Amino acid sequence: MAPNTSVFAQTANADSYASMLSYLDSNTIGGNALSGTQGISSVNTASGDANAQANIHAFALGSQNQTLILARQRTRFNAPNVPLDATAMIGGHAYDNGQGIASINQVSGNGNTQLNGVTGTLTPQGIREATDGTLSATVSASAGGQSSSNPQHAQAGGTRSVGVDPSAMEGFNGVMQLNQVAGSGNASDNLLLLSAPASSH
Fold first, then answer.
1. Alpha-carbon dihedral of residues 41, 47, 53, 55, nearest 10 degrees?
2. Does residue 3 belong to any structural domain of this protein?
3. pLDDT for the residue numbered 14
4. pTM, two decimal places
5. Would residue 4 count as lying in a domain?
6. Separation of alpha carbons 74 and 67, rounded Å
7. Per-residue pLDDT tens for 8-52?
8. % helix, strand, coil for the chain, step of 5
9. Whole domain around residue 104: which residue ranges?
């Protein structure tokens, strides 16, 4: 006599599959992450497809010096016309009491570009004013995302949310750059030019 056997099978339906995809488009920098960090920290974190991210820093020291950043970003993503539930979050006490330069690119979605750029020069001539003209000449960047007017790339519904916990980044001293995106076809950048006199000690 054959033993009794029971077989349980569960077929994933469209809703459960969509829920799984939603999980893949959730991006979190956890609580207490990089707390107390010092110096230069660069973070690129992405969930989704065809995202381009860069953190670029250039520094120079001398009587005659120049820093230059040239960056070009472009991405193409033939996103299917399906709902997108995207979230990008930074948890509590992340980056607390840090100091220096922190450059963060965080994205949840598809076909996005993100760029952080910092140039710094130490010269005996003293502090120079960074006008729009000198900034554009020193830091050249271009970011191209998807055209929102293209119906082939349109997203059909869903939710997008970004957030930084109120307790994050408390006591941070220095330069904080943050590109935080949830969605598709976005381009964001932070560019900073620093010029200061060299220390005499």
1. 0
2. no
3. 55
4. 0.74
5. no
6. 23
7. 334 445 556 655 554 468 899 999 999 999 999 999 999 988 899
8. 10, 45, 45
9. 23-70+82-147+160-196
